[in-house]
């Protein structure tokens, strides 16, 4: 090869580590002759005109190429086909906008998890010393190296992203499909969810340039296919003809605040601490109607002021419409059983609208980032929505779970309904192996299952429970899970991940729970009922702790598993599914009812009150 050609190629090779934009600038400069050797020098050195022209054409094509042409990609996520229930329609139009969320790798997730357990474990000297927003954000924030690498990547594509979390570990930007395909080496297609008819742009795989692969945890939406109808685990139950005073007080056939107070020894005395609060998460245009709450209190808490109400917080274009036809069964249930059971505890209805900033996570990430960013976080958050663990990639699920860990470290008890699919996951589905629910399988929140009856309390057949396929069993539940597996023996062997995080953690009543919605009294079933009931117990305990000058309970699980005797153990019932028997409630923890249902008196004593 001629010396001049070698010189040019060597110069280019030396600069191969430069940014794509710098490489393109160099090549153009070489072609224009500002970098020796010039095209003329190539000809003078003996290159044939045809050879030189070919070389120049190659250089010019490189100069015109996209930044991706100079990058080596690493596959981050890949699916062989779309999940069950989705069908491919065809290529997504190049101009279709996609609201991308880029999750940067946090600088110290293990440190955050260690700090969370340190302030949440009763035997720790730091128990109750919850972290400040700045301390949490220091764990969540990406490294300077990560920020620089991702910024250079975006710059090379002419893009500017916005921070969508105060820690800076989430970025958001809107790009057309053509740009998403280019920057992620992806192939976005239009996929239709058959049952709902909704269509989405998704890719079966995406990759990242080697320069940023270690600094980006995941990108969404990409290869995660969220099921649009697996959000709310509420099931409607038949309306009772009449609710007798005896039935209302006993919990034998219908559930009311009065019977829960009797069954779980929950006090009627009003809370006094205004700094204490319960946040109720609201999604998918479910609205909590104040007129229905007034009627509910008149019917079922006549000892309370029927003007007692809640504060609404809105994000992502959320609202809380008050028309009778717009009343949401889920939202009314959650509000009525926090206000109606946690007497006097300030309650906030956080309405997440349809303008999600987190793609098709339906606001799950937005709400936890929104509340975590407050200087004074709510002491409890209860959520009655969820989906199946397989509905999202492991990387995305991990990032969301880390957000819950951060929220818990601030001093918030995060509770989620475990789901209504039994061993089939968050929702009933066709399966041959047991499925896990999400977020219930995340080890940094408290999952709540469902029971019914009183003599004895019995597991609800729909109560989701089992073992995560994403997370292993955390230390705080290792012994109790091991005891269950030993007692179960070979039953259901091979149908579930025996080394996974077990859920639910606790349970509460969840069948024929009386609510008022759209002006009518009716009963509903579901773990959606159970989560706000248990959350209310925690809200009342926090009131007592704060009144005594102590910290709120925060992340509950280490405390719960350290004090199993403060709960009512449930030993009957099961949650069948997937063509098998499911799990059976038994003495101690089990993956149907967890450690059991609340006993306020014993829990108060365990909290040192």
TrEMBL record:
In this protein, the active site sits at: 330, 334, 528
Enzyme Commission designation: 3.4.14.10
This enzyme catalyses: Release of an N-terminal tripeptide from a polypeptide
- In what residue span(s) does the Peptidase S53 domain sit? 254-609
Kindly report, in one word, the top-level EC class recorded for this enzyme: hydrolase
Q: Which cofactor does it need?
A: Ca(2+)
* Superkingdom as given in the UniProt entry: Eukaryota
Entry's SUPFAM superfamilies? Protease propeptides/inhibitors (SSF54897), Subtilisin-like (SSF52743)
Q: Which GO terms describe its molecular function?
A: metal ion binding; serine-type endopeptidase activity; tripeptidyl-peptidase activity
Just give the chief location class: secreted
**Positions annotated to bind Ca(2+):** 569-570, 588, 590
The record's keywords, sorted A to Z, are: Calcium, Glycoprotein, Hydrolase, Metal-binding, Protease, Secreted, Serine protease, Signal, Virulence, Zymogen
Cofactor annotation remark: Binds 1 Ca(2+) ion per subunit.
Q: Where in the cell is it found?
A: Secreted, Extracellular space
Function as written in the Swiss-Prot or TrEMBL entry: Secreted tripeptidyl-peptidase which degrades proteins at acidic pHs and is involved in virulence.
Name of the protein described by the UniProt record: tripeptidyl-peptidase II
Which organism is the protein's source?
Answer: Mycena venus
